[in-house]
Amino acid sequence: MFRSAAFVASIFSLYIAGAMLIPAAVDLYYGHSDWQVFLVCAMTTGAIALTVAAATGGRSPVRSTRLAFFVVVVLWATLGFVGALPLYMASFEVSFAGAVFESVSAITTTGSTVLVGLDNMPPGILLWRSLLNWIGGLGVVVLGLFFLPLLNVGGFSYFRIESSDIEDRPFERLASFLRALAAIYAVLTLLCATAYAVAGMSAFDAINHSMATLATGGFSTHDASFGFFENSAILWIGTVFMILGALPFSILILFVLRGRLDALRDPQIRLFLAYTAAIVLAVAIHRRVTADIPFGEALTSSAFNLVSIITTTGFASEDYTLWGPFAVTVVFFATFLGGCSGSTSGAIKAYRFFVLGRMLQNGLRTLIYGRSVQPLRYGNRVIDEEMQRSVVLFLAAFFLVWVAGSIALAAGGMDLVTALTASLTALTNVGPGLGPIIGPAGNFSTVGDYALWILSASMLLGRLEILAVLVLLTPTFWRN
User: Fold this and answer.
1) What is the pLDDT of residue 177?
2) Rama region for 340: left / alpha / beta (φ>0; ψ in -120 to 50; rest)
3) From CA 305, how far away is CA 212, in angstroms rounded?
4) From CA 324, how far away is CA 55, in angstroms rounded?
5) Cβ(339)–Cβ(310) below 8 Å
6) Helix (H, G, I), strand (E, B) or coil at 116
7) Adjacent-strand bridge partners of 222
């Protein structure tokens, strides 16, 4: 098991080492000395990864659920540490805990940061953060569509989605699906970058922000995030592409490649769009009434910032904690929501809320008609007991880990609001929390190494749907 996990992690580390050459070339072009850091890290990482791959390859592993759990966790933890190397060795000063936090935040598409002075940061570092966001987003989609569902952790796999009216699979081979997925992901990123550039961003800003937008990652090249641009067109472009990033990519492929308009009737898509629209309109109307802001302006800022929270992107165009108690309360609860299964977003996700709603509805009917059999349906297919159990198990684990993380952070000296929202935003992969320290106007640079390690672990837990990590902590997992 250890041998197989080391082999897989080394292969993916080779890809990350190759990716380091891109920011190296950018720094060299701009005449910044950090190109040497990226080159050394790429060569060192590549050499170590090749050595490990040669030492651990050549033997077919015994495939098992236990191996899959272990490989997934080891892989993501390894990528977090490998991605931290250029950040730790760069020309600016950051602790190793801070570098790992930044890298894990990027690869899990969380968007929390410990870096200050982004406007004057070396271009290679800015691009590296965005590139890790983008790579992490693509990895999240593959993870959520194929691997975690097979382990009964991450919801509906691509072949289990609400398309049960089709007798044959829309993509018989995994390789063809992955090619289509990568192509659509890249094309959407290119379209987003083009739209940002046309709306007024520089080419460098457009490339970086498009990668972070599609990945719902939230890393910006400016300390003020989207507040730097003061451009409503840019905010609406970001809103649209964040929503696209939070849709299930398998559905997008059915729609784009097969023209399957009915695929857009997936129940989780309708639920996600419904609660997003309701929340945005409620806050926009409240701001119009209480703050006497023009409705168009209120709608623009509310749509961008709340969609950013709901889709777990983490961009901000202004400090929404100044919008009043109602808006702050809405933002807090919106942090739990998330997008759709099989998307780049995190948090609880729409399909779990849909299943919970059906379970509640079914439970109430059973109270009235005690002997009746009421099957739970997801569109045209029945939600089996295994899926219902996995949803309840996930929610129990979610709230348990959130409480434990909050207590651990409070033990390190954090106040209640900061501890609660820091733990929550890490676990849901949202990015900013609430309060003056980690709110949209702040960052995580002052929380200390102890808190950064806890939050890094929480981000990985949230990205891997919690249960995939917790199962490794049980004695049963390690028994022969």
Assistant:
1) 76
2) beta
3) 15
4) 59
5) yes
6) coil
7) none
Q: What is the mean pLDDT of residues 213-234?
A: 94
Tokens of 288: 């119009």
Question: Following DSSP, what letter does each residue of 195-225 receive, concatenated?
Answer: HHHHHT--HHHHHHHHHHHHTT----SSTTG
Using the structure block, give the residue that is written with the tokens 């490998």. Answer: 82
The two tokens of residue 403 are 């409480």
| Average pLDDT over every residue of 221-227 | 94
**C-alpha span between 67 and 220 (Å, rounded):** 36
Q: Which two tokens stand for residue 121?
A: 């940061």
What is the average pLDDT score of the chain?
88
Burial (CB count within 10 angstroms: exposed 0-12, middle 13-18, buried 19+), residue 236: middle
- CA–CA dist 455, 9 (Å, integer): 22
Instruction: Summarize pLDDT for 31-70 with one digit per residue, the tens.
Output: 999 999 999 999 999 999 999 988 887 666 556 778 888 8
Both tokens of residue 120? 């004057």
The per-residue pLDDT for 176 is: 73
DSSP state of 444: S
Residue 152 pLDDT: 64
